[in-house]
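Hi support team,

I submitted a single chain yesterday and got back a structure, but I'm not sure I'm reading the token output correctly. Could someone confirm the output below corresponds to the sequence I sent? I've pasted both exactly as they appear in my results page.

Thanks,
R.
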Amino acid sequence: MKIKGKFAALLAATFLSALTAGTASAKDLTMAPGFAAGSTVSLGAEAFTSRVNELTDGEITFTTHDLTLLSVPQMLNGVRDGVADVGVVLPMVFAAQFKESNLIGDLAMMGKNAAAMAGATTEYMMTCDLCLAEYANNNVVYLGSGSTPDYAILSTKPFTSLEDIKGSKLRSPNATFNRWVENFGGVALTLPGNEIFEAVKQGVVDGALLSAGELYNIRMIDVVKHVTLGVPGGTYNLINIATVNRDTWQGLTEDQRQAMIDASAHAIAVTTVGYMTDATKAIEEAKTQGIEVHEASSELVQATADFVSEDLAQIATLAAERGVEDAETKIARFEELVGKWEKLMEGVEPTADNLSAVYKSEIFDKLDTAEFGM
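Hi R., thanks for writing in. Yes, this is the structure output for that exact sequence:
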């Protein structure tokens, strides 16, 4: 009986140990998109959480708080401090913390192909030690960037010529686009996304430089009368759908980290394709609602191309002033990557599965899961 008792105790302990081992790595994490439910960014975040759950066979689950936990300006500090385990971080909002990363945001006017810009941006960042160090210094882990399509002008009056811009007030997303507006005699105002609708509605600005998809996402379709395509061009290509708290990341198993890496390739593809699809649908819907859709004049398009080329020197100078070393070389490298990714995307049907497959093979599959972010 004594031997049986010891055997029973040992068996119970073994069973308890096995049970604990099976559940110890199960985690319920918090995701904070910082955008409204149903928006393109929020759907990208949902794609990430769903794919992680699928790839880990339910080991990792998420509770998502679209707008109730952290706003966009609060996001970096919130994820850094563990208020959320994962969040959508827009580095352009955090200039002081991401001087290296934001060089790439400043170069957004190089591209017009959203799928290519997402790939070029993510590859640059994943192979830029100084960029990744910026994330580590803020106790977060970078997992890729989605992109909008090229920017248009959503406005209450037409903007098809150089004369139309002179003296007009336009909302701009960053300093590069500010310079574009000011180069042609306009007045640029930088406003956060949640203020654009009211600014246009109340006449604070005559229009906004945005992806056409924002006709839906922030309901610009309810206040604008005109959409001008072809200018200013460029994209918003630093939409970091899944930025992970570094302590959370390092508490995951290697397989769980791999699941997050694979899920992020999927999520940035979903986000990018979502923005592309939104833009196409929104333009067609705008036409049915009587909004005039214009093409910019050839003169304005050419003047914009000239501006983009000439502005690279200004971008390099400003980057150097904020402490970015050898900015010219970094700009040239990103320009090469944009060209590479534009070629890679030739003939690729822009679906989330197709883009995700290319992002994985070219970028994410090359990461060392055992070391990345550790």
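A quick pointer for reading it: Confidence is low (pLDDT under 50) at residues 1-24. Let us know if anything else looks off.

Best,
Support desk
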